[in-house]
Amino acid sequence: MKINIISLFPEIFESLQYGVVGKAISKKIISLNLVDLKEFSTNKYGSVDDTPYGGGEGMVISPEPLHSALKQTKGKSHVIYLTPQGELFDQKKSKKLSKIDEITLICGRYEGIDQRIIDNFVDEEISIGDYVLSGGEIAGCVLIDSISRNIQEVLGNKESLENDSLSDGKLKGHSYTRPENFLGAKVPDVLLSGNHAQIAEWRIANSLWTTKQKRPDLFKDLQLSEKEMILLREYEARIVKSGE
Ligand code: 6GU
Question: CA-CA distance, 222 to 217, in Å (whole number)?
Fold first, then answer.
C-alpha cells in the first residue's frame, strides 16, 4: 500500500519508523510518500495559509498549494482529510482502508483548509475522536499504525491480528507473565494448568467479561453463542464465589 501524506510538519511521521509499522515499511509492504506542503507555496513569503473570508480567528490553508500537492498523487488515490469534523475512525473503518492500494492523507492545521478542496478533491473526512488536536499529523500516524496492522502480511501470523482488541467487537482479556506470585498477587490457576481447552475457554470468558465491565456499549451489540453465554455465566459465578 502506498500512503501519500500532505503536511506542514512531515517530520512528525518519523515516529512511524519504529516497531510494527517500521518493519512493514522496510519490508516494502507499505510505503510512505511525505509531501511537504510548504514547498507548494505560491507567494514570495513561502506561506500556505491566509486569513478567513468573513473575518474571524486563525488562518485557513489556501486551496492552491493543496491542489498542487494533490496533483502529485495523480488522482488515482483515495483522498482522506483528517479533521475533527470527520466520521469517527474505528476498527471497522481501519479494516476497510487496509484493502486500498493507494491513500492520500491531508493533514490540516490552524482553522482548517479551504472548503472547496474538501468539496472537489476529498473522498472522505475522518476524525480519531471527540477532542481537538493541533493538527491532523498525529491523527494520521494513528491511522497508518492501525491500517498497517490490518494488512494481512504485516503481522507475522494471522492469529496475532485476530487477537487484537476490537477485531471482533470484543476487548482483549487479561495477560500474565512470570513470576507466578507478584507481591502476593497470583496468576489465575487455569493458566498454569497446561489444559489447553480450559485455557481457551477461560480466555473467551475473560474477554467477554472485560468487555461487559469496561465497554457495556460494545457488549450490548455482541451476538453471543449459547456456549459463550454459558462460559461467561460460569466465569461470573466464580468471581462472586471468590468474593472479588
Ligand atoms: Cl483527524 N484532526 C484534528 N485536528 N483534531 C482531531 C482529529 C483530527 N481527530 C480528533 N481530533
Answer: 10
CATH class name, domain 165-242: mainly alpha
pLDDT tens string 83-134:
999 999 999 999 999 999 999 999 998 789 999 999 999 999 999 999 999 9
- Select from 159, 232, 158, 240 the least CA-distant residue to 222: 232
| 176 C-alpha to ligand 1 centroid (Å) | 34
Residues ≥6 apart with Cβ < 8 Å to 135: 7, 8, 9, 107, 108, 109
| CATH architecture label of 2-159 | 3-Layer(aba) Sandwich (3.40)
Ligand 1 mutation pick, 12, 109, 118, 128, max ligand atoms within 8 A of CB:
128
Helices (H), 18-165: 19-26, 63-71, 91-97, 115-121, 137-149, 158-162
How do the domains of the chain map onto residue ranges?
Answer: 2-159, 165-242
222: amino acid identity, one letter: L
The three state secondary structure string of 184-210 is CEECCHHHHCCCHHHHHHHHHHHHHHH
Residue 244 pLDDT class (50, 70, 90 cuts): low
Contact 220, 211 (CB under 8 A): no
State the residue for C-alpha cell 462460559: 231
DSSP 243: T
